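Chain X:
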Amino acid sequence: MNALVLLPIVIPLTASAVAVLIRAHHRLQAAWAFGAMLSSFICSGALLWAVWSSGAPLVYQVGNWAAPFGISLVGDPLSALMAVMCQLVLTGGFLYALGCRDQCAQYPAFYPLFLMLAGSLTGAMLTGDLFNLFVFAELLVFSGAALTAISDDKFGTEAAYKYFYISFIASIALLLTCGSLYASYGTLNIADLARRIAADPSPPLVLPAMALLMVFFMVKGAVVPFHFWQPDFHTAAPTPVHAVLSSVVVKLGIYGFLRMTTLLFTEQAEVIRSVLVVVGAIGAWFGGLGAVGTYDAKRMLAYSTLGQLGFILVGIGWGTPLALSAALVYAFNHSLLKAAMLMLAGSVASYAPVKTAAFTAITGLGKKLPLAGVLFMLGGMGLAGIPPLNGFVAKFMLFSSGLDARAYPSLAAIGLAGIVTVVYVFRAFQRIWWAPLPEGVKPKPYGDRLLAPAFLIALSVILGVWAEPLIALSQTVVAWMTSPEQYVRAVLGG
């Protein structure tokens, strides 16, 4: 059973290598890549089910070296839930790529790079070692930057350079964190570090290491003020890649802050949470106002990600069990909705005479795409927190947790910022589906398929109407997170 922790990582990475070997046969390569991604998602689902039903994590010690001396892969409730969330959206991304008319999706390197991105992101969620987090994060950067550089968008190469070099700063921060913690405690195993830091939080390098690790996760999560690479990078990426980057790849930061506050730095957690509340509230406003003022539908949704992540960070910052549960539900639901919305924006753009999501090019195009309009309206309702979409459930839980924590100033800040979401979503809908088509503009008779966004929106509706399983799962995860000694025992034994 412990091999279930390994399979969601090994399958896409191995399939990536095989996809390179069959690069001369594009259809076979595409079918192979999608089959591998689907198999990997099924394995991650089996991992989550095994962990949830047994109440115990699955730990795989690579090379049969016992922790803390070897490499540990840990499928506890939190990492298993995050792996399922990531691989579900990644499977949707592959499904969209199969029906995508972007020229870059026909390149021999596209599917191998996409599979590498899937394996590295899942590995970052399941690793139990800080240095291996660095390794998976680097693979994530290489694959994401390369996928953006080969984009049909003329700004793809520029955006890839920005992402690569800013990620280089984040990598330095993580390496310095590893060096500081290893010098202080002689280990980089997360469970062993948690045990040692709790026993002795006084070494002088602990606080610098904590600050550097926060910088790493803020860059990876595009958290204000480390967000500046995100709109350019995500706007220029191919639509199937963009849908994944702006929905689940940025959740690596959310996962990291959950680990920091509930496992690694429990003694210093209040300081971290105070910072998260501040940057989260600022991010909710900055992202919302940026989305209102931008000129491009994909860029609008990229700024929207900054705002929505702000809501999640505030929930983590409040730190109560209800707030943490709300943050998990919010993160899962946002991943589905944002990926679907970005796919819809890309699908509409594919009908423009020159493929672009700029509002000047796609105004009125929606009149030819009524189904896309229905899906976009449902997704927008979810982002704005309007029932019956899953976004309503997440925001209701979050605001209830704010009242429960009596965090009235930050609750008021994100409550008002939520109104901005309604503004930019329905402004975009009005321009694309209600405004008249400009004279002389002839939409293409074909475009990207809507199967993937329809699938994700359908899941969003189901999780809004029938939210109990996800809420119960989030509560189980929070109960596990708030007892860090269980994680330590599972990995180290005893």
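Chain Y:
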Amino acid sequence: MKRASKLTHLDPRGFPAMVDVSAKATTAREATAECRVRFPGAVAKELRAAGLKSKKGGIVETAIIAGTLAVKRTHELIPFCHPLPIDGCAIAIDWHDANALRIECTVRTTHRTGVEMEALTGATVAALTVYDMAKALSHAIVIGPAKLVSKRGGKRDVGTAR
């Protein structure tokens, strides 16, 4: 006998399927995700001296715009994500330590399903944009880890250590 999977994106036959959320209650949902971007020491020093500006423009400003656009398009990138009305999206980028930026993305909606994937997508696309904006200085830039920091609404709230 086949053991039932705890994975939510499988139908009874084990095939991929979008989760049916039609019976869930519409509630306020929020998720926060973070991603780090670590630079070689000399690159971090140069970026700090330049005020996080590059020849392409403002690194932080561009990353915030890219991350926000990614949040709104998550359902186009992740096959089983539901298209959601995004009620709020806030992306904060600041130095975590001497050589790493911390990108935090918080997303809010009032819907039947959560916004964890939107928050993770926003944080990671913002990180990719930072890489793109700074790669002329070095290709030794490291992205990650990316993780869910917290979520509220739905069946259970989740909060993880930063």
